[in-house]
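Thread: N-acetylmuramic acid 6-phosphate etherase, structure

OP (GT): Posting the sequence first so everyone is looking at the same thing. Length is 300 residues per the record. Can we get the structure tokens written out before standup tomorrow? I want them in the notebook alongside the other entries.
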Amino acid sequence: MLEALTTEKRNTSTTELDTFSVEEIIKKMNQEDEKVAKIVKEEIENIAKLVEAVITSLKKGGRLFYIGAGTSGRLGVLDAAECIPTFNTSPEMVQGVIAGGMKAMTVAVEGAEDSLELCEADLRERGLNKNDFILGIAASGRTPYVIGGLKYANKIGATTGALSCNKASAISQYADFPIEVDVGPEILTGSTRLKSGTAQKFILNMVSTTAMIRLGKVYQNLMVDVQPTNEKLVERSKRIIMDATGCTYEDASFYFNDSNKQPKLAIVRLLTGINKEKAQKLLTENAGFVRKAVEASKKN
């Protein structure tokens, strides 16, 4: 069974890998990584369909869950965690669920990924409902933990997606929106944290970033909902305000602080000249979209 999976096959160009010099190993890794973007490109149509479904779920008040084991699970947890400071989402909106729990982020939890029941229990604990979107991630495409989670999601009527690195993968059979990216054998046989992991990260970036853009978390190409949790992000917030409005650093600093440290609110105030309360009302009425709020102010 395993020998039929691309992710388990030997890369014929690296059968003497242990004899390569340091530079030769690095060059070969780079050559293999160059293939990833081209292969992901072939799946753009399917990725777009999945993202549209994610957006629909989030607009209904649903949540996005990534489920996976090992590297795949860790990548899901990473992408979910990054949404909080980047887009000021609640921790509940995008969640990474990994076989074995958070302990598995650093230490392998024996047997967790082989359970068909464990993911259902994890999702029940999080109150999974029909408005949610579940994206199962497994390089092999056959991880029991992920299959069990997708089966449960389908049973309760949630929308499902699958991301694997083998064609005709098992998890695709349980997904409304399957994505299969065959990046070829790894330079180190079976080490799917390499090209397969890179492909998965590419696609998770596309899923979360595109969804957040379409939910009003971005104005122009600026992350206007950034959560300024440290000095770097405070300065970035001020720069975002300057870039969006053309104001001075001094004005950006004033409006940033006077707008409850919300770049989005500061931008609407500067672009429209209205007070904080009216700017907040406009943003609320326009689902948090800066562009729509500014356009609406011109009609009033």
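GT: Both are above now. Quick notes for whoever picks this up: The chain has a mean pLDDT of 95. Residues 116 and 148 are 4 Å apart (CA to CA).
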